[in-house]
Design brief:
Blueprint: E1 2-8, E2 12-18, E3 25-32, H1 40-53, E4 55-62, H2 72-88, E5 92-96, H3 100-110, H4 115-141
Parallel strand pairs: 1-4, 4-5
Antiparallel strand pairs: 1-2, 2-3
Amino acid sequence: MRILGLDFGSKTVGVAVSDELLLTAQGLTIIRRESPGKLRRTLAQIAEIAKEYGTESIVLGYPKNMNNTEGERCQKTQEFAELLKRRTGLPVVLWDERLTTVSADRLMMETGVRREKRKQYVDEIAAVFILQGYLDFLANQK
């Protein structure tokens, strides 16, 4: 069993996948979106990745505000989650993603990744942090 982790943004979707033992998350790719309103190709790519890796569920980053309120991005994420469920037939878990992008950016700064390159990888690394947080939660539930 594997779980897919997603960091959904207006221009990109970072994608990560767990190992089969559900211990670690690895970055896979970044899906570039052509238009914020058009999701058909994005959903098709995610469905293809989910099938290729045999994933049984999807963890989708849920962008709550720092004061725990839900803004416009949360609404768009909920709508995307519903589209994902219909397209893939898989359960979708919304997972609090506060500070994952900040953490991903900080990690790249600390490892010496140049600013120009950081933008290329930040969403994929954020997806890893989202998925790893969920995997750690599952491990602590056992």
